[in-house]
Amino acid sequence: MRSFATGVCVAATYADRADGRHHDAVTINSLSSVSLDPPLVSVCMRMESLFLADLLVTKKWAVSILPHGAREIARVMAKDRATRTGAIGALPASPGPRTGALVFRSASWMECELRAAFDLGDHTLVVGEVVAADPRRDGPPLLFVDGGYRVPADPGPSPATNDLPDSPWW
The Flavin reductase like domain covers which part of the protein (predicted)? Predict the structure, then answer.
């Protein structure tokens, strides 16, 4: 799977406790489209994730799709919860209009409400209905491949299939 390029996102959720709302965010690269009607997306997280535990309680989260210049945000949000919590206040973010989960400055974002969760192996697959989104595109996206963050060399459209050379791989 190291050679499979994925987009890089930050998922955010929160926990309401007696002393107030506590936000958390984590880097993910498992975002996937599930359905267009209704609009559903999925993410996969380790079962022991504290972030996942909060998400399963609130049933709300936001996904900020990171642009090419957000490598440092991706690195920080991939660290332990204490480090992430300390960094959240310093990052440009605001509560999403539909869920209250933080939306970070990003290439685009969506807010989701839990539709289903499935334990599979050592991860939980979470499916959410997209209830709000901003599809803007501010430059090329940040990618993750071969253990590192990358920017596409050619962020333009892919060639049409009929322009592909004859090859047993097509």
Answer: 1-151
Whether residue 143 is predicted with pLDDT greater than 90 in this model: the reply is no
> What per-residue confidence (pLDDT) applies to 156?
58
In this structure, is residue 164 part of a structural domain? Answer: no
Residue 72 lies in a domain: yes
> Which residue range forms the structural domain that includes residue 136?
6-144
> Cβ–Cβ contacts within 10 Å for residue 146, how many?
9
Considering only 44-48, 119-123, 147-151, which range has the smallest mean pLDDT? 147-151
CATH number of the domain to which 88 belongs: 2.30.110.10
- pTM recorded for the entire structure: 0.83
Q: CA-based angle 126:130:67, to the nearest 5?
A: 90
Residue 114 pairs in a beta bridge with 128
Average pLDDT over residues 124-151: 84
How many whole angstroms separate alpha carbon 31 and alpha carbon 119? 16
46: nearest Cα among 81, 21, 98? 81
Residue 78 counted as domain residue? yes
In this structure, what DSSP letter does residue 141 have?
A: B
Residue 73 lies in a domain: yes
